[in-house]
Amino acid sequence: MKTPAECRTMPEIRQEIDRIDEALMRLFSERWGYIGRAAEIKREIGLKADIPARVDEVRRNARANAERHGLDPDFYDMIWEKLIRHAIAHERAALGERDE
């Protein structure tokens, strides 16, 4: 592992980006496991897939995390909105909910 400043060639940069992308996918996979479990728990306790207050909270958290790390909060809010919508669609299917 090298810091950006330690990289002297494009192959070094690409290797580090590929390493980070793999780590991100591991984290997304871990996150997805929780999405699946959330659908199971929601079924058990009678919750719907889409809980607007929680959606708002997750998006606020994403924006705050982006800002804390010096990233563009609008861009990462857009990414998280897509992640959330994908998760809700998955949960709706798992719960047998129809589109409203």
From TrEMBL:
The keyword Thylakoid does not apply. Coiled coil: none annotated. SUPFAM superfamilies: Chorismate mutase II (SSF48600). Residues 4-95 form the Chorismate mutase domain. One of its GO terms (biological process) is salicylic acid biosynthetic process. GO terms for molecular function: carbon-oxygen lyase activity; chorismate mutase activity. It is an enzyme of class 5 (isomerase). Keywords: Isomerase. SMART domains: CM_2. The keyword Isomerase applies. Its EC number is 5.4.99.5. It holds the Pfam family CM_2. PANTHER family: CHORISMATE MUTASE (PTHR38041:SF1). This is chorismate mutase.
